[in-house]
Amino acid sequence: MTNFKSGLMATALCFTTWAAHAVVSLPALNVDTTNITVSGLSSGAVMAVNLGYAYSATFRGVGVFAGTPYLCQYNYPYASCQNNNVISAAMLSNMQGEIDAWSANAIDDKANIQTQEIYLFTGTKDTTVGPRPMQAVQTQYANNGAPTVSLVQRSNTAHVFPTDFAAAGNNPCAVSLTPYISNCSYDGAKAVLGQFYGALQPRNNTPSSSNYLEFNQREFTSNLGMASTGWTYVPATCAAGAKCKLHVAIHGCTQNYASIGDKFIKNTGYTRWADTNNIIV
Question: Is residue 247 among the annotated active site residues?
């Protein structure tokens, strides 16, 4: 796994430093390295796509909530890749040429994509990214041999992470406003984790606050595009040494802790499912 410079260009400006808390070192955990997956919303979805292509040997599943094709912003003006614009076959062909040239060189072998689980989500009222760029994401994955690439498209849904429960501070599903998490009567976290890991045990709607850890990211990178700290949820079984799956959830622009507190961490529903299914998030 080597350089994937395009993966940072589209998203680095959206990562900001989080407010100070009791920060710990990331604990040693028994992670099943064959069960590492990633998903994100908006710029986080772009980063999930980038990680999935660049590190395809590591990530066996990629979830894209309102993202854009791999290398789109690397080649074209940012606005051309979103705003519900059509991403043409010629544009995709140009991106594909770079994927082919970089494969097994600047990025992992693209053949790994043929073994990945892919989950795609868009809303019909999303004008920030929109259905058309997501259709291009779907086409790009199909062109690279991903086995099943279905696109979930929900009506009356804006540029948001969809849940099926109400949470303080969230907005209606049809509104694209901070914190960009909404009760859309659709459990996005269940859908994406279920796509990756199969049938899930029932979720815990009150996961223990003691299982959330803010950890020091500077132990792993000095890149100032990354915040000084990140958050992880470690189910009690995983903390006790059980071999657990690992899911990386990446927030979008303005969803960092300094902007919306713990809403992305707790209101998206990832940890509710992680708690009962031996998944570290």
Answer: no
Based on the residue annotation, tell me whether 159 is a catalytic residue of this protein.
yes
**Residue tagged active-site, from 42, 43, 56, 103:** 42
How wide is the angle at C-alpha 110 spanned by C-alphas 81 and 160, nearest 5°? 35
43-64 residue pLDDT tens = 999 999 999 999 999 999 999 9
Overall residue count recorded for the chain in this entry: 281
Q: CB count, 10 Å around CB of 59?
A: 25
Reply yes or no on whether 108 is catalytic.
Answer: no
**Confidence check: pLDDT of 68 > 80:** yes
The residue annotated as part of the active site, out of 108, 126, 187, 275, is 126
214-271 residue pLDDT tens? 999 999 999 988 899 999 999 999 999 999 999 999 999 999 998 999 999 999 999 9
Q: Which of 6, 39, 43, 159 is catalytic?
A: 159
Q: Determine the straight-line distance between the first and last CA of the chain, rounded to whole angstroms.
A: 22
